[in-house]
Amino acid sequence: MLSFKPENIALPAGHYINGQHVAGSGDRLAVNRPSDGLLAGEMTEASRELVDEAVSVADRAVRESGWASCPPRQRGAVLRRWADLIVADPQLAQLESLGSTRPIHDVVNHEIPFTAEAIRFYAECADKFSGDVLPTRDASLGMLVPEPYGVIGAITPWNFPLSMASWKCGPALAAGNAVVLKPSELTPFSTVRLAELALQAGLPAGVLNIVQGGGAVTGSALVAHPLVRKVSFTGSTATGARIMSDAAFNGMKPVTLELGGKSPQLVFDDAGDLDEVAGRILRGFTANGGQACVAGTRLIVQRGIADVLIAKLITLCQSFRPGVTWDESSRYAPMIDSRQACKVESVIASARAQGAEVLVGGGRFADTGEGYFWQPTLLAGLEQDNPAVQEEIFGPVLTVQIFDDEAEGLALASHPTYGLCAGVHTKNIDRALRAMRGIAAGTVWINRYGRSGDFIIPTGGFNGSGIGKDLGRQAFEACQRYKSVLIDF
C-alpha cells in the first residue's frame, strides 16, 4: 500500500550543514502542496552568512576528511551504500511525493530507482576514468593529471528534486569534491533526507551540505562564493544566463547549465503504428504535467497522417484524471503552484488571440479544489511566431503544425532560442539520420521520446538550452580539472 496521509509525515527541518540540521534565522518561506494548495511546511531562507558557513564547512571537510585524497574505490563504496539506503528508505518517497508534483506511484517505481542507479553509475566512475600519459620527446614524460575542484555549488529545480540532486551530487562526489546543494525553495524537503542518508552511508560530515532559499538571496550567494570553484545548475534559460554572468564576475569559475527547451516531435508519414506513436507523443508532453525541460511540446506531423494522429491524441488526452500525489492510484501530476498554472493559462490565451484553436483541454480540471491540475491541451492553427510555439510553457500543452515535405518539416522543427531535445518518428533510417543531422539539439531520440536508464548517455543542450553535459562520463570529467605535468629525465 503506497498511499499515505500527508499530515502523518514529519518534515526535515531547516538546512543541513556539517551533518546537522540548522534552523537558520533568515526570512520564513511557506511551502505549499501542489495537489491541494495547502501549507506543507515552512523553512528559513539561507542568508549570505549561512551560505558562507556551509561553503566553508565543505571546503574544510573535503580537505581534512581525506575524501578528495582517499582511494577512488573507497569513495565508490560509500556511494554504493548510499544508493542502497535510498532504495530501502520508506521516508524518502513520501517526502518527495508530498511536496512535489510527483505521484507516489511514480516516485516509488521510477524516481527512487532512477536516483539510486545514477549514484551507482558514478560510484563506478570513481576508479574507471583517469588522466593520461602524453607523447613527448624521449627524455621527458608528459602527463595529464585530474584533480577535484574542491567545492562545487549545485542548484536543482523543483520538477524532479531527487533525480536532479543525484545528477549533481553523484559525479561531483565520485570525483572527490564536496557539494553545497540548493534545492528549489518550492521542493526543499526530500533533498535534506537524501543528505541524511549520505551521512549514514559513510560520507564524511560536511562533504554534502544543503542550503534552502530562493535564487535571489541563497542561490546568488552560493554562485558568488570565492570557495565555490564550479557551479552546476538545472533550470530556466533566464536564470542560467544570470548564473553564468555571476560566475564570470566572481572568480571565472566553470559552469554546467542544463536549461530550457521547446522540443519538437517530428512525425513523418512512414512512422508506423500510429497508436504507438500517439502514446509516445502523449508521454512526451504530459509526463510530470508537462513540467520537464525535455518535454516534447511541438508536434510537427506530415499531412498524410495528421488527421488520424491528432484524433488519437485527442482521445488519449480525454482519458486523464487528476488525483493527489499521495494516493497510489494517481498517475497525473499537478502544476507546481498557482503561478505556474497562471503562466500556462496566459500563454494559451495569447496563442488564441493570435489565431490558435484549442482542440482539447485548455483549462484546469474541475473539482480539484485548490490543486493546480491542468488538462492536457492541444493547440492547432499556429504560425511559427505564435507564443505557444516560441515560448517554453512548462505545462501539458502540445502545439500542432502540419508539413508536406521533409525540408518543410525540418524548418518547422528548428527554434531560434532552444536546442535541448528532439524526437524523430520514421521507419526510414536515411530520413531519420538526415533529420538527426538537420535538427540543432543536444539530444535526438528516434522512434522514442524520453531518457532511458542508460546513464552513460549524457544530456545537455545547444544554444539557449545550456552548456556542458549532465550524466555520462562527461559529467564526471567535468567535475575535475586537469593539470599538465612535464618531467625531464
List keywords for this structure.
489 residues; Aldehyde Dehydrogenase, Chain A, domain 2; globular; single chain; 7-stranded mixed beta sheet; alpha/beta; 2 domains; 6-stranded mixed beta sheet; Aldehyde Dehydrogenase, Chain A, domain 1; 15 helices
Question: Can you walk through the features of this model?
Answer:
The protein has 489 residues and is α/β, with parallel strands linked by helices. The protein has 2 domains: 6-259 and 465-488, Aldehyde Dehydrogenase, Chain A, domain 1 (3-Layer(aba) Sandwich), CATH 3.40.605.10; 264-454, Aldehyde Dehydrogenase, Chain A, domain 2 (3-Layer(aba) Sandwich). It is 38% helix and 21% strand. It contains 15 helices and 22 strands. It has helices at residues 48-64, 72-88, 90-99, 104-125, 161-174, 189-201, 215-224, 237-249, 274-286, 303-317, 338-353, 387-390, 406-413, 429-438, 472-477; strands at residues 15-17, 20-22, 28-32, 39-44, 132-134, 140-148, 151-155, 178-182, 208-210, 228-234, 255-258, 264-267, 298-302, 357-360, 377-380, 397-403, 418-419, 421-425, 443-446, 462-463, 466-467, 480-488. It has a 7-stranded mixed sheet with strand order 14-15-16-13-12-18-19, with helices on both faces. Strands 9-8-7-10-11-21 form a 6-stranded mixed sheet, with helices on both faces. A hairpin with a 2-residue loop joins β1 (15-17) and β2. The protein is globular. The termini are far apart.
